[in-house]
Write a structure and sequence with these properties.
The protein is α+β, with helices and mostly antiparallel strands. It contains eight helices and twelve strands. Strand 10 and strand 11 form a beta hairpin. Helix 5 runs parallel beside helix 7. The two termini are 30 Å apart. The relative contact order is 0.23.
């Protein structure tokens, strides 16, 4: 019943060009620029298709090793800050957490530098921090958000017990002591079963050491009708959407309808 072990198996074995992992109870909403609000995909299937293609452009651009959707809209301050950015930059937050609905680069998953499945609890945070500490970048895409009603992990599985959480919290802190600290008892998030603070920017700084950050060109896929981006000369022909649970009620079902 271990979700972490299933993810490890999938990420190490999948044969499609890309794999996107999502929880079975996740559903999607899309951003409508006309109203600056999120709407249901069934209400605006044209927007859903366009945002899905843009998200696929992000993961096939070669600029990121991990990407995700988040469970809430970006703050107004961040959206305002991003509005003058070219192309898809206006939809992207960089160097951040990926989990619940996420993608990790296939080549990185098969690399000896990247460790799959070393935690059962907080394994998505471990993946996010590994990517950043290796000198790569992650991105969250603002054009879609997910609804995740069961945000509090249940304790019925062997990898979700309090003992496992305590053990893996300490292991995560030992892996990334500059990024992860234990929350004091009065600051515990009981609604989410989260007992740590995470600073993703510190993992990025760790990867640089004493080096000056390299100025990379802006990710500049132009606006307009999105298309599937071609990475080098090889087009992405297959994307694997992976969830465990009831497919019919998940975002995977919504996505499969847009093939």
């Amino acid at each position: 019943n271990s979700a972490a072990r299933k993810r490890k198996l999938i990420l190490s074995k999948f044969t499609e060009d890309q794999a996107i992992l999502l929880n079975d109870d996740v559903t999607l909403n899309v951003f409508d620029p006309a109203t600056s609000k999120m709407v249901r995909p069934n209400d605006r299937p044209d927007l859903f298709r366009d945002h899905l293609k843009r998200f696929l452009q992000v993961i096939t651009s070669g600029e990121f090793k991990g990407a995700a959707l988040h469970d809430r809209m970006f703050s107004k301050q961040l959206l305002d800050k991003l509005q003058d950015s070219p192309g898809l930059n206006r939809y992207l937050k960089r160097s951040c957490f990926i989990g619940a609905f996420f993608w990790i680069d296939k080549e990185l998953c098969r690399s000896s530098d990247f460790k799959l499945g070393r935690l059962n609890y907080y394994e998505d945070i471990d993946y996010s921090l590994q990517i950043l500490s290796l000198g790569y970048d992650t991105a969250a895409y603002a054009g879609m958000v997910f609804s995740h009603p069961n945000t509090k992990p249940t304790r019925q599985h062997s990898d979700r017990t309090k003992e496992v959480q305590d053990r893996d919290r300490e292991r995560l802190i030992s892996f990334f002591p500059e990024s992860v600290t234990k929350r004091p008892p009065e600051k515990l998030r009981e609604d989410l079963n989260i007992d740590i603070y995470v600073r993703y920017s510190q993992a990025k700084k760790r990867s640089l050491g004493d080096k000056t950050p390299e100025k990379k060109p802006l990710f500049d896929v132009p606006e307009g009708k999105p298309r599937l981006l071609i990475r080098g000369e090889k087009p992405v022909r297959s994307v694997c959407f992976v969830c465990h649970g009831n497919l019919n009620r998940s975002a995977a079902a919504q996505l499969m309808l847009q093939r």
